[in-house]
Design goal:
The chain is of the alpha+beta class. The protein is built from 2 helices and 6 strands. The chain has a single domain, classed as 60s Ribosomal Protein L30, Chain: A, CATH 3.30.1330. Helices cover about 20% and strands about 30% of the residues. A 6-stranded mixed sheet has the order 1-2-3-6-4-5, with helices on one face.
């Protein structure tokens, strides 16, 4: 199956050693997204989550998909207590983007992320029809 590397420079450019996403057939594999370079970097986890979900859903849309086509998240957080359980503002943000058609999601606590002021990073997989 052919693999096409996607850069999405207008949405969220990748680093020097990886691409933002790879499309193969109906699958779109999206590298970890953070709020890096946005106004949300260094702000609350909720502010960062909004930026990240916006970036991911825009990349999926550029490939002809919709939020419900996102089937898998792996979410890395620097403080699990800010993320679990998912209630309140977090839940409202997920509802805004997915309207009840949520992806699977593994939430993993890590020591730190690539830059200061980043508290969440999400990798995504979408299946596009």
């Amino acid at each position: 199956m052919k693999k096409t590397r996607r850069y999405f420079k207008d949405i969220y450019p990748a680093g020097p050693t990886y691409v933002r996403a790879i499309r193969t057939g109906d699958f779109l594999f999206i590298s970890g997204c953070t709020a890096r370079g946005s106004n949300a970097q260094g702000r609350s986890p909720v502010d960062q989550l909004k930026v990240i979900l916006d970036r991911i859903t825009r990349m999926v849309a550029k490939e002809g998909g919709k939020p419900s086509d996102i089937v898998k998240f792996t979410t890395y957080v620097t403080n699990i207590n800010n993320w679990w359980p998912i209630t309140g503002n977090h839940k409202e943000i997920y509802d805004q983007y997915f309207n009840g058609e949520f992806p699977t999601n593994s939430i993993v606590e890590v020591t730190s992320l690539a830059e200061p002021g980043l508290d969440i990073e999400i990798e995504a997989t979408a299946v596009l029809d």
